[in-house]
Amino acid sequence: MNTILKEFNGVVARFGECVAIKEGKKTITYNELNEESNKIANYLKEKGLQKGEFVSIYLKRSMETVISILGIIKAGGVYVPLDPTHPVERNKYIINDTKSTNVITSESLLDNITDLVAGNTNVLLMENLKTLEKVDIEFTDDAIDDLAYVIYTSGTTGNPKGTLIRQRGVINLMEYMLKDWCITNEDIIMQFATYSFDASILDTFASLYSGATLYLIDDSERMSEEGFLSVIQREGISIIPAIPTVFFNRIVNYVNERKLNTFKNVKIVGVAGELLTGDLARKFKSSIGEEIRFFNLYGPTETTAIVTCYEVPNNLDESVFSVPIGNDLPGTKLYVVNEEGNICATDEVGELWIASEGISLGYLNNKEKTDSEFIKNPFDENIHGGMLYKSGDLVKRLADGNIEFVSRKDTQVKIRGHRIEIAEIETRMNEIAEVNDAVVVVEVIDGEKTLKGFFTADVELPFHHIVENLKETLPSYMIPTKLKQIEDIPFAPTGKADRKKLEQLEADQVVMHKSDIIVAPRNEVEADILEAWKAVLGLEDIGVTDDLFDIGGHSLKIIAILSKLKVTYSTLSIKDFFELKTIENLAEKVKADSKLAVQEFKKEFTQLTEFPKMHVNEVLPTVETVLVTGATGFLGSHIANKLVEEGKRVVLVVRGDNANQRVNDTVQYFFNKEVSSQIEVVNGNLTEKYLGLKEEEFNELALSIDAIIHSAADVRHFGDREHFEKINVQGTQNIFELVEVNPKIVFHHISTVGVVEDLLAEGKWSLLEGTTEMPDGLSVESVYTDTKMIAEKWVLDKVKEGKQVFVYRMGNLVGRYCDGKFQSNIDANAFYRMLKLMILGNKAPNVLWKVDFTPIDFASEVVVKSVLKTDNPQRVYHVSHPNPITFEKLIAELNELGFDITLVERDAYNSYILSEGVSEEVKNLAVAQLDGDGANDSNAVYDSTNTMKVLELANIPALDTEYIGKLINHAISVGFIKEAVMA
């Protein structure tokens, strides 16, 4: 192994006049880079720098940073990258911890230096570099086991910990990259990561080792899709070694939506930082290019940037949700270890222990932490220095030898690619004078991890007080985006904070940052929307270009804002706020909507029957054992209960460590009894291959069941498409793998009548009507409904492979016919919120609508009857009430129960329910009503007549006063509707 300097000197000798670094329009050749770094090295040696001493670099990402790195190594020093955007206290701690008597900075940052360093510190300004004499220096005493750098990661004591990395690790990594990635001096490599983040090692040293050009992307360009892509195209970037997975997601979607061809010169892309989903990887390959080599990278700072690397194939299996992180790289040996300290079997989850040429020498000035995380290798004492790093990451080794990341073992998490020790944040929160105790947990929203902080105090503390204190010591990505002050921290039986309980508690969004420049409204529409934002968010200094979710907005705030705007701007919807985010964009939509002609509602109904008409010619096998997903949900639990009543064995797939408890709680809530002995609970996750089980367990499960009822889905109206696809499409494909193992299984897929309703609303019903199979290319705007329709087609297409499959489009499921009982989250249900609004407001719009509401016990009976039927004649069923009543009839039934609800024309109704005279509760309910979840004119009738006929269902529940009274009485019993509102 050559040292870093020997390799660099060889590059200078071969490619001296080639461009080494480009930053904007500035360039520097390898000869010039050599000369400039020599000047720094000479300066440091003249200032008395001894071999192995630390030198801090306090610079923005720039050409000067790379010059400084080389100069420090040439002088025998160890470089310490600081980020000027991080808090003063954090950088000051690092300078003191490393005892850096030399700091390299620039004039623009000089004012900050006085707060960071002592008076006897040597400060080298890069602007003065040109005044230093040109020197030719030979440095021959460097060795591969010399320290190269120290990078600080989050620490459990409240202070970051410095990871000591030797040249050996850098050299080992570069030898792999240059050989396997085929990097040459003709490549142009993008430098993306900040230098305080170890991903910078990949791009910087790969360039310096190969003679390639390192392009330093501007900070503004690297944070915007358009800027990032323009750099790739303009500069002819050929290698992008490592970009954060979250940003990569944005790039892929941006390119895919616009059909861009900006990656034509790129030959390699690497991503790192978060779990890479199979959907995203497949989308990259299909939309950006199969010719590009695409790598999923993994590695802790403690083992020199990366230790595994998985090259994503062009034909990545559709069943893959979590893309593997790869196999052991050269110079690395990985072990998956269980709690007993033994090597795990294939597909068994354990902690990843790493032996590597790149293993750190430990943490600077932190022997206790070093000794706990760096141990002697109990498996192979003679390789890579005989030491191991215990990563704290839970993984499993797959049958093909690759490793799949599962989760963190402790409270260390990655947020946007940054490794964070939650204990450090908690320590800093506890240091705030008024805070008594603080706990931080992770919340996953639409697939992204965010931090949620809870604290106790003797006085009420405003959130901005917490945030401003944390900003003094923590970078922005370590500050919780949600906060809540509570009376006491809950504790688990172990005596530790009950984090699981806190994860379930809601907290409030905090304002992290606003635009530097406040853009005032330019027209009346922007001014009106701005006033609504200010009133609801309680903020003044916001402008029309601020992102709602950056300044404290969330779904409940959106409803409150809409309640103030709906009367004037009726076309605005909840969905618009999620998609458009700024006042400027919302105002543009309002102006565009005003130009569209309003289509008059045609007062005629369309019967949406069970197309495609797919007949079954075979006799189905008798069913004894049924697997049910979604069994802790409203429909799934009633289906499982009905199967038990029919004497069937039931297997429930439920995710989470507390799967059995969740099933028990569900059974107690709905049926007030213990879980039947006929029920078996399997702890599985639909988003994982083999449902997160071992392959042999998965195969055994497949051979033990006769039928599957797939009832699990994400049924929210708003969210990221990728998230819906993962749950509604990928989850369906994953559970169907059981049928691939055992083709005798009959697959029953639960869908929604929203599929046919949205097709009708968008003028596409004729594309499905009359068909005998699901047509290609059907789509609707709602991402939820669209993903359910994609899943339907995928399932029904399995008939062509000889599989027995059935689809059930469920209608609006409401309380049981026997007693009116509904699910616990009644306040989130659109139908019940509509009822409450009409009852509280004493008015309802005069609309033409056949109201779809189907008792849950009747719906589950329909599904189970079909599942157990051996002579099932058709594959698509509509599970909705066959005799829906008109909206006018529903109001009459409610008035029979003692309410006083008057039907009024739509315009008068809208004006009334959003007027100043009604309560805020009514206004908030009204927003969802006017957003499409309430009473509206509708042509759609979900025709289930044929479903009832072929399944021979004679006892159809009556939608009469008695039943509607049961629904209302349940709503009263749980406090959703107050008894006093009845006349």
TrEMBL record:
Keyword Lyase: no
Native source organism of the sequence: Solibacillus palustris
Protein name, as recorded: Amino acid adenylation domain-containing protein
Organism placement in taxonomy: Bacteria, Bacillati, Bacillota, Bacilli, Bacillales
Transmembrane portions of the chain: none
Homology family: Belongs to the ATP-dependent AMP-binding enzyme family.
Residue span, Carrier domain: 520-594
Keyword terms of this UniProt record: Phosphopantetheine, Phosphoprotein
InterPro entries xref list: AA_adenyl_dom, ACP-like_sf, AMP-bd_C_sf, AMP-binding, AMP-binding_CS, AMP-dep_synth/lig_dom, FAR_NAD-bd, NAD(P)-bd_dom_sf
